[in-house]
Write a structure and sequence with these properties.
alpha/beta; Rossmann fold; two-stranded antiparallel sheet; globular
Length: 204
């Protein structure tokens, strides 16, 4: 029997544990998870230094090569500036290349929009702010006040990035097949429910 081609896109509020859920899913389903690996692949395919993609990751940026000496491609292609739209294009091509080759779990990077013409399971992981602040404090050692400011800043960047490039609304339930509160279910519980929902819906 031919193995099913499974594609799962996971959007997440910052600090809600979306990466942890993706990693658990990857282990249970034996499917590779793509997070920062997308940045490296996009850089390889575009010829740009990976530092450009890391700095623009899920943010809107305009890079001027006069201020980023050494980050541009080979001299055969050295424009005076590159905006986030071009970087988004290369990253989207990397996502589509991976998705066409086999099963994959994508974390963020507007992958649900990039793969909107393919059969995917689109999931969004959320949690109350207090729960996310606690998780970030435990992970980083920040104070609650520092963690809250950091979360809100990161979340605004993700929202602006997604809304700008997709013309959609980041985190709005109607954009996803399944929205889960990790504070109620825990990361393992979220993974369990995603697998169950995916199998019942025919996406897994």
């Amino acid at each position: 029997m031919e193995q099913k081609h499974i594609l799962i896109n996971i959007g997440r509020q910052f600090g809600a544990g979306g990466k942890g859920v993706a990693e658990i899913l990857g282990e249970r389903l034996n499917i590779p998870v793509y997070d920062n690996e997308l940045l490296q692949k996009a850089a390889e395919e575009s010829g740009f230094n990976p530092a450009l993609f890391r700095r623009s990751d899920e943010r809107r940026w305009l890079f001027r090569f006069g201020n980023l000496f050494g980050l541009n491609r080979a001299s055969s292609y050295a424009p005076s500036a590159i905006d986030g739209t071009e970087l988004f294009k290369y990253q989207s091509e990397a996502i589509r290349d991976i998705a066409q080759q086999g099963s994959a779990i994508f974390l963020g990077r507007a992958s649900d929009y990039v793969l909107r013409d393919m059969e995917c399971l689109d999931v969004f992981i959320c949690a109350p702010l207090a729960d996310r602040v606690k998780r970030v404090c435990e992970r980083t050692g920040m104070t609650a006040e520092e963690a809250e400011k950091f979360i809100l800043k990161k979340e605004k960047a993700r929202r602006d990035y997604y809304n700008f490039y997709t013309f959609g609304d980041w985190g709005v339930a109607s954009n996803y097949d399944l929205c889960l509160d990790s504070s109620l279910l825990g990361l393992d519980g979220c993974a369990d429910l995603i697998v169950d929902f995916g199998r019942k819906s025919g996406r897994i």
